[in-house]
Amino acid sequence: MAGRRRRMHLVATVPLVAVALSACGDSSNTTKPRSTTTTTAATTTTAAPQPALTITPVSGSVGTAFAFSLRAATVGDTVTFKIVFPGGRTFNGKPHPVGPDGAVAATYTATRGNPAGVYQVSASGPQGTRATSSFSVVPGNP
């Protein structure tokens, strides 16, 4: 009986070895897997600052001088300030050259006859400078 057990054990081992070798693949295959490399470069874009118009004070009565301060305008541009009064009447200021720092300053003084309300101000130039803001004229004396 001992001889019979050895033979069964040997018979059972041979198919296992055959399955294990077939799982490893054909050793005569010399094709190597291709290597791929992907390179990605980060793109950094810095947006130019947009022109910004600040008006101080934001409100005042007749006699108040409203200071217009434009920043980040196109250097070399010439900016004109347009004021739209309550009711739609407009005032076009004289042209102002943009300085080498991109700044422009101007002043508008509310005079007798200016109606109370919100005044819309736009700054624009032929080279693309554009900005808007507003101020209010309130009833009363300065």
Summarize the structure in words.
The chain is of the alpha+beta class and 142 residues long. The protein has a domain at 52-137: Immunoglobulin-like, CATH 2.60.40. 15% of the residues lie in helices and 34% in strands. The chain has one helix and nine strands, in the order αβββββββββ. The strands form two sheets. Strands 2, 4, 5, 6, 8 and 9 form a six-stranded mixed beta sheet that branches. The protein has a three-stranded antiparallel beta sheet with strand order 1-3-7, with no helix packed on it. Mean pLDDT is 83; it is low at 4-22.
Per the CATH scheme, the topology name of the domain at 52-137 is: Immunoglobulin-like
- Oligomer state equals single chain
Radius of gyration: 41 Å
Number of helices: 1
Give a topology summary.
Elements lengths: L1 H22 L28 E5 L2 E2 L4 E7 L6 E7 L5 E3 L3 E2 L6 E6 L7 E8 L5 E8 L5
Parallel strand pairs: 2-9
Antiparallel strand pairs: 1-3, 3-7, 4-5, 4-6, 4-8, 8-9
Brief synopsis:
With 142 residues, the chain is of the alpha+beta class.
Descriptors for this entry?
1 helix; Immunoglobulin-like; 9 strands; single chain; three-stranded antiparallel sheet; elongated; six-stranded mixed sheet; alpha+beta; 15% helix; 142 residues
